[in-house]
Amino acid sequence: MRKTFVVLATTATLLASVLAPAASFASDYFYERERNNNRTTADRVSVPVTIFGERNDVDGENDEDFFVFKAPSSGIYEFDMRVGSETDQDLYLYDQTGEHQIAHSFKSKGRDEYFSVFLNEGREYYVKVKHISGNENYTLNINS
User: Fold this and answer.
1) Whose C-alpha in 6, 7, 10, 121 is 20 to 30 A from the C-alpha of 40?
2) What distance in Å separates the CA atoms of residue 65 and residue 80, rounded to the nearest whole number?
3) In sequence order, what DSSP letters do the residues of 38-67 get, joined into one string?
4) pTM, 2 dp
């Protein structure tokens, strides 16, 4: 009887963990829109989000993409950017003024960018993707 109860309890727990929605997965998709090259023209997104960004040939080597979001809760947020093997793009996070850098990741060509940082509920944050080299697009995931 005790073995049956343990098996049923374990099965129920596993099933609940599989069926329950996970908070760490992005639920919205956003396609970056140009002219978001500075804070005043930043694309507004809601978190969690997956952003599909494009390299802008008009701006050439000076292409920067800005996004702004309001943290829905206090806690650790993960920023994970996937880049192509021939592309170098750097990732930055700024406070609500857009002037104070909170976090950054700038790895070499073909390497994905990542950082995690504690953010406060209700505050706005700016994300900047800076194009360094290459012509491939990027995917940026922001999760809490």
Assistant:
1) 121
2) 15
3) SGGGPEE--SSEEEEE---TTTGGG-EEEE
4) 0.79
d(CA 137, CA 53): 6
Looking up tokens 């099933």 gives 15
Burial classification of residue 114, based on how many CB atoms lie within 10 Å of its CB (0-12 exposed, 13-18 middle, 19 or more buried): middle
What is the C-alpha separation between 66 and 43, in angstroms, rounded?
A: 6
Please name each of the domains of the chain with its CATH number. 23-143 (2.60.120.380)
Structure tokens at 9: 């309890």
CA angle 67, 92, 88 (to 5 degrees): 100
**Contact (Cβ atoms closer than 8 angstroms) between residue 76 and residue 48:** no
Q: Which distant-in-sequence residues (6+ apart) come within 8 Å of 107 by Cβ? A: 90, 113
Q: Sign of torsion, CA 102 114 38 133? A: positive
The 10s digit of each residue's pLDDT in 31-85 is: 998 889 999 999 999 999 999 998 766 656 678 999 999 999 999 999 999 999 9
